[in-house]
Amino acid sequence: MYGGDEVSAIVIDVGSYSCKAGYAGDDTPKAVFPSVVGSVEQTEGMDDPKPEKEADSASDSKNGAKPMDVDKAKTKRKLYVGQELEFRRDHMEVISPMKDGTVTDWDIVDNIWNHAFRRRLLINPEEHPMLIAEPSTNTAQQREKAAELMFESYKVPALFLAKNAVLTSFASGRATSLVVDSGGGSTVVSAVHDGFVLQKSVATSPVGGEFLTDCMMKSLESKGIVIRPRYSFKKKETSPGEYKIVDLDLPNTTESYRLYCMRAIASDVKESVCRVPDTAFDEVAYANVPTTSYELPDGQTIEVGADRFKVPDILFNPSLSQTIPGIDGFADSTPVRGLQRMVIDSINKCDVDIRKELFSNILLSGGSSSILQLKERLEKEVLEESPQAARVKVMASGNSVERRFSVWIGGSILASLGSFQQMWFSKAEYEEHGVSYIQRKCP
């Protein structure tokens, strides 16, 4: 119907940390870039090419986005997406369109999609069916908004919305599994049965990669280590082969951009040295562990000791984060559950007859699942709390790229299947039945 050899579908997955986009049938996404954007408030009369300004304000009014300033004619925001974020600009705020995995700012998502299609994949969206990955916790309004944007702004010929957990399940070739998706903004555990998410089983936690990165950053700062963002210094040659670091004075840099750059460094420290401890973290037992050294961009070498184990253990024991100076407690009064509790609770909410199958098909996915030893530790913890008869098996692709992109890869497999082609929600159906029909077409 739409698939076939001439036109391949486009698979796009906007996560809370990065956006992945590419062609169905490929092994990995063609374009991967951050899902945050830089925003600069512009006053009318600043040198900006005219057409872009009109297009922007048109899209602003269409998406109902209100600029920060009341005076519509005077200010509008200019958004920088993808690689444009790497360059520091005066007064550029870094904003994320997501909160707890749900889209809060559709104007930004629109810009991210536009960047993916026109700048990175270099396609005309009117010619390709789109498969969009969505969080398992998405509401009906969110789905309708996404469909409306796709059909109205991009005039796509057909669309399908698929839940993240289902796609991860497909990527590993299973119809029934318990998907533990630990991404940048949150961790979501959901049971998938015969290709459908069991909504009652979905458990979420605000502990994701970004939170662990913050813990790492604050913990290093509490030990007196200064993380200098890359834009804030330059190397000056004092004598041949010897350099000294010169700090640059850039008073107009916003706090959010400074934090964004520092997080990028702290995140790399986390990915390079951290591993999950075999047993629950204990300050005394881990006080004398051998340290691992890491060289920061400005040339100073730091030694990371107990934090290597403490930071990843927050996934299993969120209350550990309270011991790190500068980390605020979680906003809700409800205690945040550790990973093993979420898995057990999620399985217990499902029907008795599929629990056994879920225990033996626990799938790890998402960027944060690449931390060393996470799979072994989760298996051990769940085994201790599970019923005697259950065979607990935690699976994760050995390839960290596959873990990071498992949702996208599942979408790529699904959209290229011949049997899937009659499931698209087409533009004709959209025009005939209206946007709410998406709820029936994409369960």
From TrEMBL:
One of its GO terms (cellular component) is SWI/SNF complex. Gene3D superfamilies: 3.30.420.40, Actin, Chain A, domain 4. Residues 23-70 are annotated as: Disordered. One of its GO terms (biological process) is chromatin remodeling. One of its GO terms (molecular function) is chromatin binding. Keywords: Chromatin regulator, Cytoplasm, Developmental protein, Nucleus. It is found in: Cytoplasm; Nucleus. Involved in several developmental processes including organization of plant organs, flowering time, anther development, flower senescence and fertility, probably by regulating the chromatin structure. Belongs to the actin family. ARP4 subfamily. This is Actin-related protein 4. It comes from Sorghum bicolor (Sorghum).
